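Worked example 3. Consider a protein that binds pyridoxal-5'-phosphate.
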Amino acid sequence: MHFPSRDTPEYETLDPKDWEEMRALAHQMMDDAIDWLESASERPVWQAVPEEVQQQLKTSAPQLPSEPTSVYEEFKRDILPYPLGNTHPRFWSWYMGSGTFMGALGDFFCSLMNPNVGGGNHVAPLVEKQVIAWIKDMVGFPAESSGLLTSGGSMGNLVGITVARNTNCGYDVRHEGVRAASGPLVAYASVETHSCNRKAVETLGLGSEGLRNIAVNDDYTINLDALQAQINADRAAGMIPFCVIGNAGTINTGAIDDLQALADICQKEKLWFHVDGAIGAVAVLADNVRDQLKGMERADSIALDLHKWMHIPFEAGCALVRHEVAHREAFSLTPEYLAREANARGIASGMFWFSDYGLQLSRSFRALKVWMSIKEHGLQRFGRMIARNVEQARYLGELIAAEPQLELCAPIGLDIICYRYNPGGLEQQKLERLNRDILGELHEQGIAAPSYTTLNGVYCLRVAIANHRSRFEDFDLLVRETLRIGRELEPT
Ligand SMILES: Cc1ncc(COP(=O)(O)O)c(C=O)c1O
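Given these inputs, the predicted complex is written out as structure tokens:
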């Protein structure tokens, strides 16, 4: 292998060979990006990746360089046309935000500056601290509480539940492990709680039995009597309750548990109160939701997502913990090669490291896209976008209620509507088949992207309106098209 000497102009790096060519290409990319996002509503909400494109994507790893322009052309041909769809105004699947352009630019500069925000003395941790301070203030957490940005709600919940376990198990679980507990450690959450909480409890070595499934009321909020009864029974059986997880917006129907009552139970029972606010915590910004979230500010920890209803590009979640020391003690581990000295100078100076508050050592500068988006729009505008989605959910609910062939399947929680096409006279199985096909057609014809769920055994279409681009007429269209497709597919 030939390595040119150190001073030759051909000295090889991964920088562009020709900066001016790269400048021109980057300008072109930016123009294309703006055109693409500006025209999002003119494209189908979704289209399948054609078979030939799937084949084209399958290559062996390139061993030799390609021209940057040809890499970009390939991206434009094989990748850009086939997104998930969540930049489109009629994407309402699962629970996803729609992104912000400033957030995308923040992502670009995050990669360009490319800092590792695990630790060290540089500006990125200061930006993350600032963003965390804004979020603490938003949800009513004290300034001395701690927090960090995470990949999403799943990691946020894992952080909160880990601190809960370590704090409340009554011994040094980091050292001795769960096998040293004097009885099974158990946490509590409603049956409507997101599966990532179960994963967290399993990951913590408590088994899926370690998360007690509590029944819900008709509005899908946790049944408090059932919760209290389960805690009593578990204590009587020698188990060690350590945490209650409350929902600020469930994934199926957007239900908000009675967070005040859960905080009271936790206070009385000396349990950690964790709130899964992945969906709804940021709705404290919305005038038409804020009151429903009362009690969240009493939590010991909160997980929330900024890539959902705050529309920050993926990934952007957050964990907040009221008790900074407990938080740090759950995750801090400082071997010699990461040791910090109080009087260190330069890049290694400063004792605060975000890696002391979570599992990751290397961490991206995801705070930048959050900081830039919040600076650009201001929290009040985010609040108005959230409030409008809630109004749109009510509007869609009214449209559905006015159509005899459509049926609401659950009370409307926050911005989530569950409904189905039901012309009457069809048995459950046929109704389910029909609604599955309606959903398939809505997606495949590129019209709209609800998802689905099953509530009390009833299959229904689920519209989760975390979308700042949706307009009221988009819901007129959804109803019109559901009816059209339903009539076309109805078995005779
Ligand atoms: C209520 C709730 N909690 C947690 C999560 C997991 O969050 P993430 O996908 O950001 O990891 C979700 C995801 O939809 C959710 O709806």
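Take a moment to read the result before moving on. The CA atoms of residues 118 and 355 lie 5 Å apart. The first strand starts at residue 91 and ends at 92.
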